[in-house]
Design brief:
It is a single chain. The protein has 118 residues and is α+β, with helices and mostly antiparallel strands. It is built from two helices and six strands; from the N terminus they run βαβββαββ. The chain has helices spanning 32-42, 77-84; strands at 15-21, 43-54, 60-63, 71-74, 87-96, 109-117. It starts with 14 loop residues before the first strand and ends with a strand.
């Protein structure tokens, strides 16, 4: 099935876990609120959201290196979800995008977050 994160073709409360894996960074900023609403809608009570994506403590956008006309966005995804809904962050880890080791190089950060829907 093909679709987009802002329009999920699934019934309400149909999933116990929703996983975002390296997809949010390419979504349009204007769609973030709708993406979170859709996640909230399809996620069952006491469900979990797992986010593995490029991470930034200060949101910013850059030109996507594969396509010049596309922007890549680095955001603190877990905090963004928590701001817009009823999620509690259970876990958050930041690592280097290649190899998973710790790094201070912010441009290389990838975040792994586990959120619970309360």
């Amino acid at each position: 099935m093909r679709g987009t994160a802002d329009r999920l073709e699934f019934p309400d409360a149909s999933f116990d876990v929703v996983i975002y894996r390296f997809c949010l960074y390419l979504c349009d900023v204007e769609d973030y609120a709708r993406i979170m609403v859709e996640c909230e809608r399809v996620l069952a009570a006491n469900g979990f959201v797992i986010i593995l994506d490029f991470f930034a403590d200060m949101p910013h956008s850059t030109q996507y290196h594969h396509y010049a006309s596309v922007k890549s966005h680095k955001v603190g995804w877990a905090a963004l979800f928590q701001k817009h809904s009823h999620y509690v962050r259970l876990h958050h880890t930041i690592a280097h995008q290649r190899g998973g080791h710790f790094t201070l190089a912010r441009e290389e950060w990838v975040g792994l977050s586990l959120l619970a829907k309360m």
